[in-house]
Each structure stands twice: as C-alpha cells, then as structure tokens.
Amino acid sequence: MKLNTLSSLILVAGIALLSCSSGTTSSTAQVEDTLQDTLGYPEEHVNWKLGAQAYTFRLFTFAEALDKIDSADLRFVEAFPGQIVGAGNEEKFTYTLSEEGRDLVRKLLADHNITLHAFGVVNGKDAEEWEQIFAFAQDMGVKVINCEPKEEHLDIVSTLCEKYDIRAAIHNHPEPSTYWKPEVVLAALEGRSPKMGAAVDVGHWMRSGLDPVECLKKLEGKIIHSHFKDLNEFGDKKAHDVHWGTGKLPINEVIEELKRQNFDGMLSAEYEYNWENNQIDVAQSVRNFRELLAASTN
C-alpha cells in the first residue's frame, strides 16, 4: 500500500467517525475494524510478532493486562514475573505457579486469542532456580526467556537453552547496568549456545546515549527479541515514553535495519508512562507502527 493511499484511507475513516450520529463506542469500533481490515497486520509480512510486555500494565492483573493487549489489537504477550494472575487467582506469575494457576493462564490466553511468546525479565539466584524457570517456561509454551544473568550463570543458561530447547535473550537496562552496551552482550554470548541472543531495548539504549541503529548493527545475527519504545528525549535517563513515531527514536531507520537483518522475533510494546491509562497510548503506538511498516514495505 502506498503512503498517500494509506493516509487517504485514514482521512476517510476519520471523516466517517466524525459523521457517526451517536458517537458510540460501537460506531468507533466499526470504523477501526474497517481500517484494520484494509491495513491488515503488516508485521506478519516480515515475520515479526507484535505484542506487549505485560509490565506495561503492571498496575493490573495479568487477566486485565490481556484485556488491554487484546483491545490494542495485539496477539502476543511477554509475561513478567510477579504479576498477579487475576480472574479469581491471587498467585503471582512465576515458576511457582500452581497447576490450577497455569491452567487458568492457558484459558485466559485462549479466550483472548493471544500467544504467550516470552517471559521476562527474569533471573535465577542459582542453578536450581534457573532450572525451575526454564521448566516453567517450557510447560507454558514460552519460546524466549528474557534475562540479565550474572556472569557466573551464563554457562548455566547456555546449557539449559539446549536442554529445554528454549531461547534466552540478554536484555539491556540503561547504563550502568551490566549489559547496557552491545559489546558486553556480544562478549557474554561468545562461545555459548546459539539459542542465546539479545533482547534489545531501543529505549534504554537511547537513555544511555547510544544510537539504537548502530547498536542493532553491532548485534546483527544475535537479536532474538526487542522491547520497543519511543522517548521524548535522547541521552536522558529520565526520558519518558511517547507514542511511537513522535519522539526521538529514528523509528524508520530502526524498522529498516531490522528488516535488513531479517529479524523474525517479537517486538514487545513496553510503555512505561501514564501507567493508569496507557492502553490508549499503546493502541495509538501500534497504529502508528503499522502505518509506518506498511508504507515501508510497499
């Protein structure tokens, strides 16, 4: 789809929305459904899995987070340890989750048509706990564990990746955390399981004053997962999330670099701002992203 055609469609949809006599939620939904039918899911054409990190909705239960993710028209979720399951279950979403709790999570996912693709950011205190984390992930169908292992645990994680056939992706928090720059991640991956890679957080790179496109290039062939965000400032650790495509992230260049590398993992929307009502921010970011991606592939 050409960009001018896409923009025209959005304009028409907006006019249609304004012309709705009642201004009801159902009328809005009809217009959005029409727009989505035309846009489709452009991420599928490049084999990307667009979803959300449940931490975005950390003030709510996992069940409530799924409602919000579903309403943002996303079909994948990255769960995080510690979130209350909800829907009548007060357990936390960790490897200690009971069989009843696990069954409930599976039902909630199926009811929302959302796939649990990743789990993190999580760490084990020793080999035994790492094993429990991997066993839990395998039982829940998780494909990627996002983590920041201690240096002495890297070989443990590498071995467990092979044993459980699960990928482990090293995540970067901002400087001065251990893995804040790509060179440290690359050194950690050297000589270890090919199932280990990087979970790149483009926003945290920006907070650390690193060019996200250059960082992606340095990690070529190692990128398994991404925490995706756009920020209002560059090089400022206090920078906050804004709608994708409206901040300092060179989003078009990031999209093109991921495409060039044939990235085929999950992009987790992680919107850590406006915590009490950020579903609307995630939904708008997703719409912006799909428009930009559709324009770049046509």
What is the fold's blueprint, element by element?
Elements: H1 3-19, H2 25-39, H3 42-45, E1 49-53, H4 62-71, E2 76-79, E3 84-86, E4 89-92, H5 99-112, E5 115-122, H6 127-139, E6 144-147, H7 154-164, E7 167-171, H8 182-189, E8 196-201, H9 202-207, H10 212-218, E9 223-228, E10 230-231, E11 241-242, H11 251-260, E12 266-269, H12 279-296
Helix pairs in contact: 1-2, 4-5, 6-7, 10-11
Domain Xylose isomerase-like TIM barrel: 72-287
Keywords: Isomerase, Signal
Protein name: Sugar phosphate isomerase/epimerase
Task: Summarize this entry quickly.
It comes from Sphingobacterium corticibacterium. With 298 residues, this protein is of the alpha/beta class. The chain has helices at residues 3-19, 25-39, 42-45, 62-71, 99-112, 127-139, 154-164, 182-189, 202-207, 212-218, 251-260, 279-296; strands at 49-53, 76-79, 84-86, 89-92, 115-122, 144-147, 167-171, 196-201, 223-228, 230-231, 241-242, 266-269.
Explain the overall architecture:
There is one protein chain. The strands form 3 sheets. Strands 1-2-5-6-7-8-9-12 form an 8-stranded parallel β-barrel, surrounded by 5 helices. A two-stranded antiparallel ribbon has the order 3-4. Strands 10-11 form a two-stranded antiparallel sheet. Mean pLDDT is 90; it is low at 1-35. It folds into 2 domains: 1-39; 40-296, Divalent-metal-dependent TIM barrel enzymes (TIM Barrel), CATH 3.20.20.150. It has helices at 3-19, 25-39, 42-45, 62-71, 99-112, 127-139, 154-164, 182-189, 202-207, 212-218, 251-260, 279-296, and strands at residues 49-53, 76-79, 84-86, 89-92, 115-122, 144-147, 167-171, 196-201, 223-228, 230-231, 241-242, 266-269. The chain is globular, with a radius of gyration of 19 Å. The protein is α/β, with parallel strands linked by helices. Keywords: Isomerase, Signal.
